[in-house]
Amino acid sequence: MDTRGLRSQMKDSVPVAGFCPQGAYGLQDSLRSGFTSVKNELLPSHPLELSEKNYQLNKDKMNLSTLRNIQGLHAPLKLQMEYRAARQIQRLPFLPSSNLALDTLRGSDDMIGFEDVLNDPAQSEIMGEPHLMVEYKLGLL
């Protein structure tokens, strides 16, 4: 299947209104939602791109199904509950979270990956006004 022809047809039909979430006055609220990215709206440029994006999800599904076949239904359910609890542990909205507990549960805490080297919080573009971000997360704004 040739997706390049399909992508060029789809490029012209992307709705412009969906690119930016509208604020109270009809303008994009860049402070809360960040900058818009057209790259996220495009179709994948390579057939393996979707496979690489979903690698961790597919790996987790395979590990859980193997665990279910070996130990029974209780083991993957317990592990999924621990994953969910580890995902809910977050710092304040304006501070980056390392998700160390989740990495420890997955067994990837002793590996150095791409995101460990190039995910420097000092170079992040999401830093904003701390009080405003906390009030927005709590639903006060």
What report would you give on this structure?
The chain is mainly α and about 140 residues long. Helices cover about 50% and strands about 0% of the residues. The chain has eight helices and no strands. Helix 4 (about 55-70) runs antiparallel to helix 5. The radius of gyration is 20 Å and the shape is extended. The protein starts with a helix and ends with a helix.
Key descriptive features of the protein:
141 residues; mainly alpha; 8 helices; extended; disordered N terminus
Summarize the structure.
With 141 residues, the chain is mainly alpha-helical. Helices cover 50% and strands 0% of the residues.
Intertermini distance: 47 Å
Global mean pLDDT:
76
Number of strands: 0
Structural class: mainly alpha
H/E topology pattern: HHHHHHHH
The residue ranges in which pLDDT falls below 50 over 5 or more consecutive positions are: 1-20
Radius of gyration, whole Å: 20 Å
Indicate the proportion of strand residues. Answer: under 5%
